Amino acid sequence: MKRDNYEVLGVERNAGEQEIKKAYRKLARQYHPDVNPGNKEAEEKFKEVTDAYDVLSDPEKRARYDQFGHADPSQGGFGDAGGFGDIFDMFFGGGGGGQRRGGPQRGSDLRYAMTLSFEEAVFGVEKEIQIPRDETCMDCQGSGAAPGTHPTTCSQCHGSGQVKVTQRTPFGQIQTARTCPTCQGEGRTVSSPCSTCQGQGKVRKVKTIKISVPEGSEDGLNLRLSGDGEAGAKGGPPGDLYIVLQVKPHKFFERDGNDVYCEIPITFVQAALGAEIDVPTLDGVVKMKVPEGTQTATIFRLKGHGVPRRRASGRGDQHVRVVLTTPTKLNEKQKKLLREFGEVTSEQQQMGKKSLFEKFKENLRDAMG
């Protein structure tokens, strides 16, 4: 039975979008197949975390999940509730309903790590990727039998895929079900295998797939392409393809949600007298006014110059932090002018606020009455 999606991500049911996203990114990095090569347990954890995030990150899916849980009636089923066959499997290692084992089987899911530049993630991009995967053999239509022939029902298990074995024990006779040794649990045998797929019903091919990365995408985002995974068996549906986005950091911008941040140096003269400076943005260079008397580390906002919102209209903002730079290697004339400026300007005027020494003198005078 599936675990609760909120429990999988380790968040409360009233968790916000950013909290859910943060929890998912942490777990996705921890269990990512590239970080845990060959680790089946980590692979299952990664799939579980991805499926949970796919539901909770979508407002409509989350609302349905909060109301119905995994038993979403819109999906035409009742989740992964187990039956008597699952209990039989638990105790005896075989299915009580052998027909399920030999029936259609869904194909495996595939995952592909796609590396994007900062700009590609922000504005979206279309890319082509090549995925090696199993596809249904067209010559035998997935049956595994040579064209013109058909698989036949196994004579030993009569199509169930299992044979019953009776054992005598101190507690009496116990009947168990085991995999049929003749058909290996398939429930059918192929006397004339297909020469193309060697009787497997599937062939290995490299598929070229076009991927549309939406604008506003971010590092760790999963894109699911339904039906683009491994081919199913015995007429079963194919699995899904998960595209895991890995976004390269930018040399100038830092991103936080839909906002971007940057740092721009300005001169003492620009800060003191005010100026109009050039600021790089995601859309190109724009003019920004620096008011007279601007202090270092002041942050200005350029509205609408951030990242496009993925599930809504509009964009975030760009936050520009200005930092005053101190000139070096001054010539004698420049030094003289600065000394003259210092002589005609008080410390408070130069600092833009009361200096620590002035505050100390005021406190001393107050203490002495």
Tag the structure with descriptive keywords:
single chain, 369 residues, alpha+beta, 4-stranded mixed beta sheet, 3-stranded mixed beta sheet, 11 helices, 28% helix, elongated
Walk me through the structure.
By secondary structure, the protein is an alpha+beta fold. The longest helix is centred in the N-terminal third of the chain and has 17 residues, at 40-56. The model is unreliable at 75-100 (pLDDT under 50). Helices cover 28% and strands 27% of the residues. A hairpin with a 2-residue loop joins β10 (254-256) and β11. The protein is built from eleven helices and 15 strands. The protein has a four-stranded mixed β-sheet. A three-stranded mixed β-sheet has the order 1-9-8.
